[in-house]
Design a protein that fits this description.
Neurolysin, domain 3, 9 strands
């Protein structure tokens, strides 16, 4: 039964799905303050009655969920419906949320009860998932400053509060800087090389910016730093000077003026180091890896070095091929072969067209979003025996373009649901793509199961005119990737909230299902099923598929080297970098780039000012996770290859085993154990290098 305040404030409505259509910025502060007060009261009562048994953890979960749910909704809206009013409200209570979280994590009575449970007679009666939950809770408490006293604890709490505020400001600055820059083009010569779909997108952006008469044929055309616009221009525009202009703008995002993230980066790194040392770690990287699958910094660097050795020569060859192509004198290329950074994407696309005789634009009409979704969901049914049903109108949404879906098991029982927010909205939606939880699966006290609900967000090209969104193949891969994350959240069978779905999984293993799903984009049956020409309904021609498949390893060395560059830079900043006059963050970037790039960044490159992954997105000292998990995902997919991709029975059996391990167990079992249970052995890099074309066999 909800009280009057809940009826007035939609963020206090805790039954069912969030009422997005009624949630406004004005609701945030009173709701969050109310829920913090309730949690504070509940914690005080629980501390007086904390017993060394499982019930203490269950009661703690019950207390924390109302605030966690509401704050999760607020943070979700910060990503998909950002506004100055919402930012102000978020900022006003963010520190309070951090402090109540610290209050719970640093509760001495609760820590004592859990420690006594861990070492007492009741421990043996807990199942493995419960034991892992308790162990994780104890470690979480230690890493939240539980064992610090007096001034050290006060300082730790201040750091946590400051970091939360700084990381939010960092992300907001990137969003603002991206939104603030645009380039309006009026001369047709300026857009030479841009395909019709990109011209349509650019004209639509111009109309949205106050040019109602803009058309794809005659302009004006608005190019922005939002990824769909930026990337399309860099790949296709013949005007080399304009590619240079937008490239320089992109690497300078949030690096000057009111949105300058430079001082924020320095503060964030310094505070993270201080936090780590308070907790007994010499670097933040060691603190970060204390909760990850990797055995330590040395183990991560060993993997990155192995991949670097396998990819560098290939990347150097890639660059020489671009130089040779440029010297052929194609429009838009430097005739002397002196390839600059703003030429790489353009020349790569031309080389791809020459070598494989197809363009990305040729593929677009074959991948309308509705058909891709049908193919993706058919694959999920074949592999995991689930059905995905469109259910628009059954859940409130935050934007008219958001879709809602139900997931049913093989017997027709609903087991999960998810939102899909597919299109780019640079005015109020952050860039990139992500998956997150709305509701976590949990077995309740009455034995009923609360079903999981996921958010999936992409930033692909929006529909133009009467046509559906026509996807680039990269956007198709991104959708499969995020759906993989969603499956791990939604197909979990774990009933304990702290280790259900995506919760409790070591960060460097969480990309396994997402990257695993990308492999299916190159599987003939799957690809043919999801490709239908938007006008004719024809399947993707087989010769075009073969070219697409052959192009999979195109510039694989360069792509891998790029990820190694980011991962090594992230690790260096969080492990060896010491702020001071001797070296700056830019100095570190240049030093790492010297070993991990074949075309060094510009002297004025400040891409780190827009690197939200490590400064605002949870990947601090963890960007290596993409490559770490890619090793796992490639090896996992090779299990299907070995079983026989052409045999529906073996595919289904292997898919069921994948569902029952990787997707079902969530954080209730260590990821290495999950992987070896599925695969029958420990992971190796062989499959990743083979799929990338960097080794044969």
């Amino acid at each position: 039964m909800q009280d009057g305040s809940a009826q007035q404030n939609p963020l206090l409505e805790q039954d069912g799905l969030p009422p997005f259509e009624r949630i406004q910025a004005e609701h945030v502060v009173p709701a969050i303050k109310d829920l913090i007060a309730r949690l504070e009261t509940g914690l005080t009562l629980l501390e007086k009655d904390a017993r060394p048994d499982w019930s203490t953890l269950e009661r703690l979960t019950d207390l924390g969920e109302p605030l966690g749910f509401a704050w999760g909704v607020v943070n979700h809206l910060m990503g998909v419906r950002n506004s100055p009013e919402l930012r102000k409200a978020h900022s006003e209570v963010q520190g309070d949320v951090v402090m109540i979280s610290m209050r719970a994590a640093q509760s001495e009575p609760l820590y004592a009860a859990l420690s006594a449970l861990r070492n007492g007679p009741a421990w043996a009666a807990l199942d493995a998932a419960q034991q892992r939950t308790v162990d994780k809770k104890i470690l979480e408490a230690r890493l939240s400053g539980m064992e610090l006293k007096g001034a050290q604890r006060d300082r730790f709490n201040t750091i946590e509060q400051e970091l939360s505020e700084l990381e939010t400001r960092f992300g907001n600055n990137v969003l603002d800087a991206t939104k603030a820059w645009s380039m309006e083009l009026t001369d047709k010569a300026d857009v030479a090389g841009l395909p019709p779909s990109v011209l349509g997108m650019a004209a639509q952006a111009a109309r949205g910016a106050g040019k109602p008469d803009a058309t794809p044929e005659n302009g004006p055309w608005r190019i922005t730093l939002d990824v769909p616009s930026f990337s399309a221009f860099m790949r296709n525009a013949h005007r080399r000077d304009l590619r240079e202009k937008i490239y320089r703008a992109f690497i300078a995002r949030a690096a000057s003026g009111e949105t300058d993230n430079t001082p924020l980066m320095e503060k964030i790194l310094a505070l993270r180091t201080e936090k780590a040392r308070l907790l007994g770690f010499d670097t933040f990287a060691r603190l970060s890896l204390a909760t990850k699958m990797a055995p330590g910094v040395d183990g991560v660097e060993k993997l990155l070095e192995e991949l670097l050795r396998a990819s560098r020569a290939s990347a150097e060859k890639d660059l020489e091929e671009l130089r040779a192509l440029a010297r052929k004198g194609i429009p838009g290329a430097p005739a002397d072969g002196n390839v600059a950074l703003w030429d790489v994407e353009f020349l790569s696309e031309r080389l791809r067209e020459e070598r494989f005789n197809f363009t990305e634009e040729e593929l677009r009409p074959y991948f309308p979003l509705p058909r891709v979704l049908d193919g993706l969901f058919a694959l999920a049914e074949r592999l995991f025996d689930v059905k995905v049903l469109r259910a628009d109108g059954q859940a409130p949404v935050w934007h008219k373009d958001v879709m809602f879906f139900l997931i049913q098991d093989g017997d027709g029982n609903q087991i999960a649901s998810f939102y899909l927010d597919p299109y780019s909205r640079p005015e109020n939606k952050r860039g990139g793509a992500w998956a997150d939880e709305c509701v976590a699966r949990r077995t309740l006290a009455d034995g009923k199961v609360r079903l999981p609900v996921a958010y999936l967000a992409c930033n692909q090209s929006a529909p133009v005119g009467n046509q559906p969104s026509l996807m680039t193949f990269r956007e198709v891969e991104t959708l499969f990737h995020e759906f993989g994350h969603g499956l791990q959240h939604m197909l979990t069978t774990v009933g304990y909230a702290d280790v259900s779905g995506l919760r409790g999984i070591e960060w460097d293993a969480v990309e396994l299902p997402s990257q695993f799903m990308e492999n299916w984009c190159y599987h003939p049956e799957t690809l043919m099923e999801m490709s239908r020409h938007v006008d004719t309904g024809a399947q993707l021609p087989k010769p075009l598929f073969e070219k697409l498949k052959a192009a999979r390893t195109f510039r694989a060395g360069s792509m891998m080297l790029r990820q190694i560059y980011f991962a090594r830079l992230d690790l260096e900043l969080h492990h060896r970098f010491q702020p001071g006059p001797e070296q700056t963050i830019v100095d570190v970037q240049r030093r790492i780039a010297a070993h991990t790039t074949v075309l060094p960044p510009l002297a004025e490159d400040r891409f780190l000012c827009g690197f939200t992954h490590i400064f605002a997105g949870g990947y601090a000292a963890g960007y290596y996770s993409y490559k770490w998990a890619e090793v796992l995902s490639a090896d996992a997919f090779s299990a299907f290859e070995e079983a026989g991709l052409g045999d529906p029975r073996t595919v289904k059996a292997t898919g069921r085993r994948f569902r029952d391990t990787v997707l079902a167990l969530g954080g209730s079992v260590h990821p290495l154990e999950v992987f070896t249970t599925f695969r029958g052995r420990s992971p190796t890099t062989e499959a990743l290098l083979r799929h990338s074309g960097l080794v044969t066999g």
